[in-house]
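Hey, sorry to bother you again with one of my protein questions. A protein chain has come my way and I'm curious about its shape. I'm sending you its amino acid sequence along with the backbone structure tokens. I owe you a coffee for this, so here goes:
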Amino acid sequence: MTLVRRLMEQAERTPGAVALVAGDGTELTYGDLRRQVLAVRHGLAANGLEPGDGMLFSVRPSPESLVLALGVVAAGGVVVFADPGAGSEMFEARLRLADPRWSAAESLLYAASRLRAVRAYAGRRGLLLPKLADLPLRHLYVGRWLPGVPRGALSFGSLLRGDAPESPPENGAYGDPDAPAAVIFTSGTTANPRAVVHTQASLAAALDLFRERLPLGPGDVVHTDQLMLGLPTLISGARWSMPPLSASPGTFVRQLRERGATHTFCVPVHLAEVLDVEPALPGTLRYVLLGAAPAPAGVLRRAVAAAPDARVSSVYAMTEILPVAIASAEDKLAHTASGAEGDLLGEPLVETAFGDDGELMLAGPNLCLGYLGQEPLKRLPTGDLARLDAGRLVLMGRKKDMLIRGKFNLYPGLYEPAIAALDGVADAAIVGLPDPGTGDEEVVLAVVGDPGLPAALRRRLPDVIDHDALPDRIVVLPDLPRSGRGRKLDRDRLRELVRGGDA
């Protein structure tokens, strides 16, 4: 059974229930969601979208983007998620690799790209994109018409108003479960961009794993902007509460309370910002899930204190296969407090194997089809070094982050959790700087805390990390640099910040 069919059958069972509450409070029932997806599917097929057609997707999270993406997949198309923040050269490189036939974008983005500077859309200055209207694609726009929208472009609104059948496709399949359904760009360069290809089947398997570990059902309210948590919410008959775009921490926690959220997902840095505004989270919360970046011990402790009646957990996942493991905050903190090395990830939810060097290899029904333009994947080499401890995965570090000090190979991820768990340390990261005099790397520890922290750490670090891993310098920063929606640590930027620092 395809992912879209499962959602549509749930909508048939509870047509009057609220499926989604948008950032501005607008509500969409399950019945309306079903009718709109059917209308978009029918309208796209009537206008020439064929199975396998890629649609470049530049629509921010919203009820409209959800309906449009589901309609594309239901019609057999492939949603190619575009990132306007990637810059002009990367955008064009990804476009060449994906070779889509269609483009879907907000009318605001078409208008902004006409002027070259996409400031209003991206929320920052100097972001340049090619003129979308000049791309040789069939265009579809969301929102009211604005100058710059290509002549002849389809309107999303017109698809909803079209004469669509109330019944599903003849065989009720809503696309081939094993055919590509979504393309997500994750990394690479302009010369070699990398795009993950998921099928409806791999995405459905991922949703099932989330539902097993994060029980959901009618009456639950999940507050998140993450599609991969919003979809299992809808398939379960629960309510997806979608925060406004770029919601402030205050707005996020206010809506948690006003909407009676039972579940929420946060990037650790974002949760820390929320707790700075409101130290106590609403009592309705039963599950708080952290992900997209490692959760420092300090954030985990604050989360447990802020939601004492909720289960606070951290998810380990990759775009290629998600989720991989989920660990409770209590287990992660106990692991660190015991003096054990590495970051506890929890019991694996997928098949695991290890390379000769300890690299974690993964497989399972939720594994993506592969990378666009490459052979299908049977097993994913993660680039993460890990081990099994009593049946639980422990992350030891990233292969590419390894530092060399004489004959000692230093993996930052092996020591950062223990350092971040020390009193007075809000966050910690280790980077290396080339030492031209010795050929080794200078090991620099960057911490967030009080100015006097380096002196205290010099006394305490020998008790928690190996002697060979002790830093050459300790630098205090107001925050560690992070990038992307996942707010992942930007080690390249961190090296620039600590170059020539003190302590």
Remarks:
- The first helix runs from residue 3 to 13.
